Amino acid sequence: MPGVWRADACAQPGAAWPSGHAALDAQLPGGGWPAGGLVELLCAQPGLYEGSLLAAHWARLTQAQPTARLAWVMLGRSPWRLHAPGVAHLGLQPQRLLVLQPTTEADAAWAVEQMLHSPGICGLWWITRHAQAQRLRRLQWAAQTAGIPLFVSRPLACRQDPSPAPLRLHLQAGPEQALRVHILKRQGPRLEQPIDLKAPAFGLPAPQALPTLAPSSAPVHHVVDCPVPAPVAP
């Protein structure tokens, strides 16, 4: 029957963006990243692998919407600082990137939600450590309604926490400089085997030499020190 999802097969959402990695697209519902909604990325060290995984997707987003920007949200006290040449190395234009550095997790969640309602944003990435399930549910609904892909990076310790994200991935280093992706949750049957992505873009350097998020004095053009007002109750 049309419109009915059978749990022994992957769901087919209305729209999806190719991830740029055929082996991964073959296992994602709809054949790519959801065009709107929450994708949760779990890493032992959030911020280490996501740039390599998502660079091709972000490049497509900015090419398809030439007047919109990508937004990255990370806490102001984060040890990572954006490195403009590293961003360019991923194929992105630093001037198309808006970086917010709120002082608290609550402020960061508020800022993410406001940007999901902004017509000037085409994609979002939020690095968080203590996002509450209630906030994630609210953001999942907002991202789905707005048709904006929202990627949320959380520590691997959050793997046992409930999550409203329809898609959850665990990222880690694989053999021979590959990026290993475990699909923990999807709208489809359980996938036991990880996926190793061995495209040339996945030459993963040591953490201290990471080109995207590395301590550097060369900032991205749009870095905003963002003391955001207190969250507004629903």
What does this structure look like?
The protein has one domain (33-224): 3-Layer(aba) Sandwich (Rossmann fold). Helices cover 22% and strands 23% of the residues. It contains five helices and eleven strands. It has helices at residues 22-25, 50-64, 84-89, 105-116, 133-146, and strands at 16-17, 33-34, 37-43, 69-73, 97-100, 121-127, 149-155, 167-173, 179-185, 195-197, 222-224. The strands form two sheets. The chain has a nine-stranded mixed sheet with strand order 10-9-8-3-7-6-4-5-11, with helices on both faces. The longest helix is centred in the first third of the chain and has 15 residues, at 50-64. The termini are far apart.
Key structural traits:
234 residues; Rossmann fold; 5 helices; disordered C terminus
Q: SSE order, as H and E?
A: EHEEHEHEHEHEEEEE
Structural class: alpha/beta
Strand proportion, as a percent range, falls in 15-25%
Low-confidence stretches: 1-10, 200-234
The Rg value, from CA coordinates, equals 17 Å
CATH architecture: 3-Layer(aba) Sandwich
Helix content: 10-25%
Number of strands: 11
Please indicate the count of domains: 1
pLDDT averaged residue by residue: 80
Per CATH, the class reads: Alpha Beta
Globally, the shape reads: globular
What is the first-to-last residue Cα distance? Answer: 37 Å
CATH topology name, in short, is Rossmann fold
State the helix count.
Answer: 5
